[in-house]
Amino acid sequence: MRQYTKEVIKKIIPEYILQVRRNYLANKRHREGPKRRKLLKFEMHLADHCNLNCKGCNHFSPLVVKEKFLDAGIFKKDCERIAGLSGGLLEGIRFMGGELLLHKNVVDILNTGRKYFPKATLDIVTNGILLPKQPKEFWETCGKNGIHIHISKYPIKINNDEIDGLARQYNVKILRLSANTGLQWHEMKLDVKGGQNMEENFRLCPQANNCINLYEGKLYTCPTIAYIQYLNEYHGENFVVTEEDYIDIYKARSMDEILDFLCKPVQFCRYCDIKKWNATVEWGVSKKERKEWIEE
Ligand code: SF4
Ligand code: SF4
């Protein structure tokens, strides 16, 4: 419904007015930092690894050495807990990875999400490579549960005509994410010394309290902290994550406590150097080099 409303607004209001509004909101966010959310939304991995492996991936997927899949039973338990804390009210879930379509049990996981959160926005984020191979059951599940599919745009060949045909057949909304233009890419490097200003980083960070990740029963304000273990393990680094950097959904006493936690800087933010993050580098396949993620 929200997507439909957005599309109607886009048709009525000229693009330049929408751009002025977007700039105003971005500047406001930079001045004031991320606001406390009214309802929780989160992203989650169905697979930590990926079949594309982009250079500098901010979920560290190219560095995942051993395939790692979400346990559908654990997800059910996590949903039960979050639904209990939130009274079943959630803004939304983005099912992603890595590449989520590598998971053999996507359908069950999507059905579980919808069962516990009947009113939430449910989205899939995929690179699209495996979409044409998905069985009928996958498309039917997306159609009946109102799950939208976001395809991130990369300069790779995928069969868009076939995907659009399937989406039409099963009444599934497809959106193509233009954040990555296909030629330009983001570089979000870390300062190994942790000498940066955590409050300022958090205030300027596009991920903070926005790309919240649920991983192994814990909520992180961004994916960088949730998956940093892969950079640590692959390159022998020591980016430290402590209990102060996330909130455990089984220890939190209320949804208020969770929402309060997620909108504040954490110690880990000292490793980011947001002002030097570059959104205009050329996209490429990862060589898994240290310099893709770490300032040298
Ligand atoms: S497709 Fe997405 S998850 Fe996969 S490597 Fe690229 S950026 Fe990372
Ligand atoms: S650690 Fe802090 S500054 Fe770095 S990406 Fe996460 S929220 Fe942003």
Beta fraction? 15-25%
Number of domains: 1
Q: What is the CATH third-level topology name?
A: TIM Barrel
**pLDDT below 50 for ≥5 consecutive residues: which ranges?**
none
Percent helix range:
25-40%
Number of helices: 9
Describe this structure in a few short sentences.
The protein has 296 residues and is an alpha/beta fold. The chain is built from nine helices and ten strands.
Describe this structure in words.
The strands form three sheets. A five-stranded parallel beta sheet has the order 1-2-3-4-5. With 296 residues, it is an alpha/beta fold. The mean pLDDT is 91. The protein contains nine helices and ten strands. It has one domain: TIM Barrel (Alpha-Beta Barrel), CATH 3.20.20. The termini are far apart. Helix 3 (72-86) runs parallel beside helix 4 and helix 4 (106-116) runs parallel beside helix 5. Bound molecules: iron/sulfur cluster (2 copies). One iron/sulfur cluster binds next to loops.
Q: Main attributes?
A:
single chain; 296 residues; alpha/beta; 5-stranded parallel beta sheet; 10 strands; binds iron/sulfur cluster
